[in-house]
Structure formats: structure tokens, C-alpha cells
Please model this.
Amino acid sequence: MKSNYKAIGELVERVDERNRDASITTLIGVSIDKKFIPSVANVIGTDLTNYKVIRKFDFAVSLMQVSRDEKIPVACQKEYEAAIMSPAYPIFRVKDTEIILPEYMEMWFMRSEFDREASFVAVGGVRGSMPWEEFAKLKLPVPTIEEQRKIVDRYNAITDRIALKKQINDNLEAVLAASHSKMFFSKDTSEHTKLGELMTFGNGKSRPKTDGPIPVYGGNGVLSYTDHHNIENAVLIGRVGAYCGSVYLEQGICWVSDNAIFAKSKITKDEFFDYFLLKRLNLFNHHVGTGQQLLTQEILNNIEVPKPVTEQIELFNRKAASVFETIFTNSREIIRLQELSDLLLSRLAG
Model:
């Protein structure tokens, strides 16, 4: 172990501030992607006084099922001056920001190597959980504060660029969604059809074990990459679980896993109309099952929608194709920037 490595427990202190006066009502949690997300829990009538307060630049971590998920949901809270979290979350903060920057520590937690080490340590825990004491023993390198600032600045420049490109893509898609709505849903029509008349659906298959450049899609988007494909130019739909009904567009070749369904147009060679139609339908609301949400081809085939005019579909697809050229260019840059970001994180260990 290099001499500049220090244990997490040396650098942070636990925080256990409670929302005793119930003045804070913003309830958040930490996702598996190491991001803070608004809680979906219904807190109407709930006593919030025992919830933990997390302040700006505090960290929260979930230490349950670490070895099962092979990730530790941990993040630095930078969006709110103060929010509240379930009492189950350990909350901690950096003791001295002249020794280590919270942003630098968060970068270390983002590393896949950190997750692998934590998963290995947690194997012996109950249900793969990790006690705080074991988490606090994990070590990270602590260079000079000046070097930390340089590293954080470089990382932020990359992630800010990624966020900008994603925002541009979101805005472009929003413009197309509005155009789609105006063209196909703005007028009352008595003539309807079923999705099965407009497109063909099919289930994916277990993902190959080989590696390669071709994306593998599951319910939550791209899972990994392989050297095989089972579809080209299609809309992908999450089939099962929490991401049931999620919709993605792939213009190249890809592998659709058994957690997803693909859709192909029966009318045109492009899938832009289908993509925006399926996104508009909020497909999660059509699932069956409570414990495990599920979408099937039968459900999708029988969903009724206003009957579109083929010429209008072609017109929309031509318009969307030109816009998606920009979106795809931005997406390729996002991939390159993400690779650069991962490389920077991997070099933190020296």
C-alpha cells in the first residue's frame, strides 16, 4: 500500500442529525448509479422527525446487498442545502477539506475498482451487506490538496461537457416529441388502430458471453457490448422489472437481451415515428403483475392508438432523421468523453 493511502474512517466523520422540527420535507435516496434521486415514497401523514438530515457536501451510502449488486450506492449530496433521508442510510462528511476534497473522494467512489474491492469485502456479510466499520477501513490515495484540485477540475470539465451534450440531445428530442404530438394527436379522430397493425414486436434473447463493439440492450438501456447482433434499426422496450416500459432507439446493429422487446415498423424503414409513439404511451402503465412488472407482445399488440396517415409518418421520419444526425453525433462524443472520464478515474490509484 502506497504511503499516501488513508482509510476512509481517518478522513470522514459520521453524521446523525435528525429532522426533529420536521422543517425539511425534501426526501431523497441514493441510486445504484451513485446519484441522489427524489424518493417515490408517499410521505403524506408520515412522521418525518426521525429522518436523517443530509446537508450540502455530505455523503450517504447504502451498505446493504453490496456483494449481490456488485456496487456500493454512495454519493456526495451537492444539489440541496439540506434534504432528508431514511434513517437506514449512514451519512458522513469530510473532516477537513484542506486534507481531502469531497469532490475528490466522490471520484474515488465512482471507480469500478472501488466497487470490486467493496464487493469482495462484503461477501462474508449477511446477504452481502457491509458493516460501516468495514467500509471505513477501505483506503484511498490522498495526494496534496493542490493536486486534488487539478484532478477535480479536469474531471469536472469532462463531466460538464457530457451534461451539456446530453441536455442538447434532450432538447432536440423534446422538439421532435412536440412535433409528433401535433402531427398525430392534436386532432380528434374516430378512427383508431392497434399497435400490432403498425409494428412487429419480438422478444430478445440471452446476451452472448463474448465481448465486442456491438451494444447489448436490456430494460435499462445498454448493458454491455458483444460481437453479435440480433436486430438492426429498431426500438427497444424494457420487458420486466423496474425498467418495464422504458423505450430506446437504436439506429445501428445491436443485441436485444431477454429483458427487452424489440419493435420494427410494418410501414416504413425508419423507426422514428414508432419511437416517439411508444414513448408517448407510458408503457409502464400497461404492465401486468405487482411483485414483478411485465410487458408482453400481446399487451403491446392490442394497445389502441389514433390511426396515422402513412404519408404523415414518412414526413415525420424525414424530419426526425435530420435532427437525429445531430443527436447521434453528440451521442458518439458522449461515449468518447465517458471513456476519457473512466480513464481519469482509473488513474487515481497512481
Remarks:
- The longest helix spans residues 145-185.
- The CA atoms of residues 202 and 262 lie 5 Å apart.
